[in-house]
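Lecture 7 notes: from sequence to structure.

We start with a single chain of 391 residues. Read the sequence below before looking at the structure.
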Amino acid sequence: MKRFQKWSSLALAAALALSPVLSARAYKADTLRSGSRGEAVKQMQQALISLGYLGGTADGIFGTHTENAVKKFQRASRLTADGLAGSKTLELLYQKAGKSSASSSSASSSTSSSGTANQTSTASTASSASSSASSSLFGGDYATLRMGSTGSRVKTLQSRLISLGYLSGSADGKFGKLTKQAVIGFQKASGLTADGLAGKKTLQALEKNGSSASSSGTGSSASSASSSASSGSAPSSGATASGPSGASVKLLHWYNDIKPTLRNGQTLLIYEPSSGQSWNLRIYSSGRHCDAEPKTKEDTASMLKAFGGEKTWSQKAVYVKLPSGVWTIGSTHDNPHDSQSIKDNDFGGHLCVHFLRTMSEAEENDPKYGVSNQNTIRAFWKRLTGETIAD
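Now the structure, written as tokens:
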């Protein structure tokens, strides 16, 4: 009996001595998780960054931000969103990152300078549509497409609208209500008759790389605006800028990603997709959101057009070009209130631009208007990508 007990004790001691080695081997071979460190983590982070799921640099430390990025990728890829980077998650991640790199290298210089790819399937559709856009996009067939139209030409139309940020979801080849609304948005931004009919002028404008240039002669100002925006500076006041491509829009968090990078006096470029209007805001201050002012009278006028000619607290979802040159989404209104620093912009106060925050934090600190803006942001992201923002 004593001999058995002695043998059992020795076996237990040996197992305990080996367990760290065994667990370390299994850990390394199978899954990266919160607390993991090293080259494997760094490689994973670089792939997440290239696809737009993670900001900053790859430091090889699997922390909270990395875990959240893994979860976002898993949700977008219809995997179990547990934040554990196992073989299935990593295999799909590197596969998509490889495709993203190949797409980026073959895209035009303007597309490659616009930033990393978006974190949804919409991004890959948008990227391929952007790189393939040319004067032969519709093969010279400019027969009018309208509500009820179906087929490959509708699918091409939808893919182009998705790449420009006017339409969300996937191209299904069916011209329905959402496609018509997207056509109207593009027509407004391009100075065309906004009737929702994709005729020759509209289709040819889409072939011209989707800028707001059109036969109405707005092309030079739009090109200038887009060029300066991609370099991180604002367009000249009153210029019309085209919206971002779907592949260049990143979902950024106010406290983690945006606020630390902003300084008072910098410029935000705002694009409101339903009206096609754009305007410049100068950053005034920042707290739980960004306070800003229209830079000029022309910017105020463009903003008022986007809000139907009235000053209101009712917010609109917008694309925001940050001083860094990165596009993200936000929510804003056009009602002047309280103090101001610019006296000759026909505004008489400042306004608020809200960016993504966790809903639990917004409910605690801004239970009314802050939560309302968070709902607007979440609904916009859902329309744009089909993805639901968790918390």
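The chain has three domains: 26-106, 116-207, 250-385. Keep this in mind for problem set 3.
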